[in-house]
Amino acid sequence: MKATVRRAEITDATAICTLLQSLGWFPHLNSDASVATEQVAYHLNSCLADNSHSVYVAEQIVEQQGAEIIGYAAVHWLPYLFLSAPEGFVSELFVDQAHRGQGIGSLLLDTVQTEARVRGCSRLMLVNSRERESYQRQFYQKQGWIERENIANFIYKL
Description:
Elements: E1 3-7, H1 13-23, H2 33-48, E2 53-62, E3 66-78, E4 87-95, H3 104-119, E5 123-126, H4 133-136, H5 139-142
Parallel strand pairs: 4-5
Antiparallel strand pairs: 1-2, 2-3, 3-4
Helix pairs in contact: 1-2
């Protein structure tokens, strides 16, 4: 089946939440479906509020059911004072398990790269867990991404 990519809309929150729940990686999204959907909708609405974020969904047409969201990507456009142009930070790229290996992730990344060029960005960046299937099968490297050797990624939990 052929997939298409479009900008996300607030009405996509339920489908995005369902996709995230199906992955089983985020326990807090699996406790109460309505609370999880509200949380996703809240964050999606924040991303759609201005031009500093972009969220794309990949969907396919399923006969007699309409369009089904099978993946999505979120990117944040960050102006760094030390770079010659903004950076796009791909914070989320998820594809439904049943649709992996069909070019959906590549299609989403291509869309993000196109927008980054239109915006005049100097680079794109993302973080991927070395334990994820996508890292182990070198998905991003095969797409032309380069893993940084000298950067440590830190978080500070609040």
